[in-house]
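Researcher: Sit down with what I've pasted below and flag anything odd:
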Amino acid sequence: YSSGRGGRFQLWETGIDGLDSGLKLLGDHVGVAMHPAVRPGQPSAEPEVAFEHLIRHDHIWRLDLKNPEPARRPEQVTRSTWSDHTPVVSPDGTMLAFSSDQSGTSGVWVAPSDGKGIPQLLTRTERPHRNVWASSWSPDGKSLSVFPMERNSEIRLDDRHVTQLSLDAPDGGTEHFRSRDGRSVFFFAPADGKPNLWVQAEGSQRARRITPDRASAAAESFDGKTVYYTKHPDYPYGLWSIPLGGGPEKLVVPGVRTSSWSASREGIYFLDFSDGSRNRYLPRDVLFHGFGTVGTQKVAHLESAGAVNLLPGFSVSADGRWIYWSQRDYLNSDISALTGW
């Protein structure tokens, strides 16, 4: 059967009791595999399974918001024939980290943010069915946190050294990111049965819960006074905020979807999902909410010739000039086969 366990659909085999006895991954080289049909083996032949092999070309694009319209045109940043997604731009705006399976399995790559250099592989998983991605840069731009591989740790770009963080995280926590001054670590971990945001000061052994209800993605304001966050993907779309010094949470902007927003020094940029749509397709507007202001303003419109599928990840440079996103530019499928597994 085909299963998306670990984040990517591949072929699996299990015992007929349905209890995962003898669970085994088949053909870890096939990429995305779906809709298998098995032909039993004969005395003179091995068993064979035919399946649909999806071919995806997912690329990262960027747009210069300072370039006046109509001269403003999206620029393609990555050009592989694989799946490149989840872009995260470095604090100084010169480098881009992203997830890609162009090495055969999912890994984190780093490249110049203008797309003019050769991407370098930082780390990758050895498990073909598992996706990994860079969740954040360190404030100095010298390290990356990679999830779910190397959980609660940071990888240095220069020598690939891994530093393990000692976090007071229930169940080990999930993604984390550094505070703007680098002196604290924010991370997601369960509280009252729901994912919430916590913070732990450097050198401390105890963490403090930040969000009262739930959180699924977050960013600290550049002045270090406020945290902005969205809630669980199944929760109504919206961007929330809460003072780090204490106080109630409040809904800042409705229509903001998890993994479709990013913070600059001046405010929040996000893709408009105020229609409540669960379909991640272009065309779509890019809106801006300035810190300390009310409401939003349209800053760009991401156009497309047809319904182009958006992938996870949306990032803005700290100066608010460039936005980055990932989209599916090509999708097709072949019929392939595996023999004798």
Notes: The radius of gyration is 21 Å. Residues 180 and 223 are 8 Å apart (CA to CA). The chain is about 0% helix and 50% strand. The mean pLDDT is 85.
